[in-house]
Structures are given as structure tokens and as C-alpha cells.
Amino acid sequence: MNAFELEGISYEYQGGQKALDAVDLKVPLGESLTVLGTNGSGKSTLLYLLQGLLAPSAGSLRVFGDKTFTPSKRARIGMLFQNSQAQLFSLTVLDELMFGPLQHGLGQKEARGRAEDIMELLGITALAGRSPWQLSGGEMKKVALGTCLSTNPDVYLLDEPTSGLDPRSQVELVELVVRLKEAGKTIITATHDLHMIEDISERSIVIGEDHRVLADGPSAGIIKMNDVLLEANLIHEHAHRHEGFRHVHSHFGVHEHAWEDAGGGKITEAELKTGKEFFLHQMSELTAKLKVLIEHWQEHNAEHARTYLEWAGKAGAEGRAELAETLSEIARESGRLDELFRKAASQL
Predict the structure, then answer these.
(1) What is the tally of structural domains in the chain?
(2) How far, in Å, are 233, 246, 278, 283 from residue 274 at the CA level?
(3) Last residue of a domain, which of 199, 231, 263?
(4) Do 180 and 158 contact (CB within 8 A), yes or no?
(5) Domain of 323?
(6) Cβ atoms of residues 276 and 268 within 8 Å
(7) pLDDT in tens, 288-337
(8) How far is it, in rounded angstroms, from Cα 255 to Cα 301?
(9) What one-character DSSP code corresponds to residue 279?
(10) Are the C-beta atoms of 308 and 328 separated by less than 8 Å?
């Protein structure tokens, strides 16, 4: 059975602003799906439609096999909003987490017990008596996620769940999503963060800036579709010029290199061979190769340092303090590497 079936779904906001255009999508129960798209592509709007907060302007939407969106069906769907403030309204965190269970008919004692279990799971027990409005953005996000967990829905709609979270909390959230997935929950995550999609989903779709689905397939394959990700503005190209040639690669994952002439046109293998021969004729092979490598290392040094810090946070979250410190030390040394790269470049 499918949790959702969308056929030709479109949505326009007042004034004719298009958010989704002719989207076809089926999400089986128990599937974990990532919806990828840049800001403004329509990811959030899609989740609002699946939650029943909006009705499509055109097309057909079935929820659990039926076109009627009843209250009992809405109760089977939990949603984490991108803006956590939009779903928090109680006086304390404890009240916030008890509200859903009480509305579902649980007694005070049982609802409180469930809320306490969720606070322990999310590491927010110390916030129980605090007002949600006195919390940091990351703490608010955790409480908002707790409100979803509190009603134990069949489907979770997560809108940019890692935004505002520190690296450790991001790791914890990914681990939680994996646990929910293993428990058989249906999880649909809207994000533009490509780094986590293989961990949280078997399948991904890409929504382009034209608000249409550009690609639909296994997550491991989607992240390798550079042309699609470029079109959707999820990754970007940047170029290095080398003696009349432009070296182009994506800004995510393993670099796959292509060559273009200075005017932007693709060059043939024969032209590439001739160009390389000319290039190498102008300087020794060692100098030529080092020039390309050092320019590349210089450009990406800061990016790599951020990656080391991110993984240091993840290692720390797993209790691997020694590894976390080593990775942090590598990041701290990035400034020294910048100096060495500049020195090497001046010696070519």
C-alpha cells in the first residue's frame, strides 16, 4: 500500500506564484524518501500538501489509498516544520510534549511518561520546565521533533531537520531517523543537504527551480548525477584557468574533471591531447602537474578544514575523543598549510 500517491499535482500561491508543477510521485508505506531541492523549489509546499495543510491547485492526491483527507489520517502523519517556532505554543517543554498524547486520548500519567521518555531520548530532560520561547534554535528544533515523536505517527514529514543543529545534534538526528526507518516508519525528508541522504533514505527525488521533478531514483545514484544537481542548483561549478584551458569540476563529492576551451565550448580528445602537449611543452612535467595540484589544494583548503571540524564533532558525539582531537588539530593546522601552499606556488 502507498502512503501517498500524487498524479499531476500542481500548486500556486495567491498572485499566481507557482510552487509545484505537475508532480507525479508514489511513496510506499515504510519507505524513507529524501526530497532534494534548493530554497524556493517547492519542497516545503510538497510536505504541506502531504500533511493536508494545503489542497492542490490541480491534480490528484491519495493518502493511504483514499482521496479524502480525514482527521484520522492526519493523526497518522507527524510533521517537523522548518521553522520550529511555527509548531510550539505551550508554556513549557513538558506541556508541549504532553499535548499531542493528551489529544489522542491518553491519560495524564501516561502522557507525562511518554513525554519524559522522549525528552530522555532527545537529551532535553533539563529543559522540561523551560518555556519553548527561551530556548536556542537547536533546542527548539529538538522539542519540535519531540512533538512529532510523542504521537507515534506512521509517517514523518521532516522539513530541513538539520538546520540550526550543531554537528553532534546532526549526527544524533540522523541516527534517530535511521532507527525510525528500521522500525518501519515512512519518512519523507526535505533538504538541500546532500551529505546525509544516503544515511537516511534509500530513494531520493530532485525538484528543480522550475518546480518539477528532475530525477527520481536510489539515493546512491542521485548524488552522482552532477548534471541534474547542477541544474537544480544543489551544487555549483567553479573553474580554474590553465594556459588557455578551463578546468571544471563540481563542488560536491568526488571530483570528476572535464575540460573546456577558454570560450566555454567542450573540446575534443584530439584537441585536448594537442592542448596538453602544448601545455607541457611550456614547462616541465613536474612543474605543470604541481601547478594544477597546488592551485587545487589552495582553493579547497578552507573547505577541507570545515570538513575536518564537522567529522571531529561526529567523532566526539560517538565518544571517540582522541580521534576528535586529532581531526580538530588537522583543522587548526589549515592556516599553516595555506602558507606552505603559497610558498610552493612561488617556487614553481
Answers:
(1) 2
(2) 33, 15, 6, 15
(3) 231
(4) no
(5) 237-346
(6) no
(7) 667 767 776 777 777 777 778 888 888 888 888 888 888 888 888 877 78
(8) 15
(9) H
(10) yes
